[in-house]
Amino acid sequence: MPVWDSKKLGFFMQMIETVIKPNRLDAVETALAKMDVGFVPKVLLKICANDTDVEQAVNVIIEAARTGEVGDGKISFTQSPRW
User: Fold this and answer.
1) Is pTM, for the whole model, over 0.70?
2) H or E element: which one contains 29?
3) Tens place of pLDDT for every residue, the chain, 83 residues?
4) Which of 67, 47, 68 is nearest to 58 (CA)?
């Protein structure tokens, strides 16, 4: 019996986010391929920046990451409290 049964929740799809050791990526990719699960490796960056630096940081990320191909990535924003 699986530990997690998504059918009980009634969702069509669910986003799975996981943190793994870099040296285990190939093993995870192979295991997902056996399940016929689509997998496109990406890197998730989480960056905290002052409000005054956000526009410049976003522009730098876009300039450095853009290839012009579909799937270059997405950028989203979430407010973070100051400590």
Assistant:
1) no
2) helix 25-34
3) 556 665 666 666 777 888 889 899 899 999 998 998 877 778 888 898 998 999 999 999 999 999 988 888 889 888 888 76
4) 47
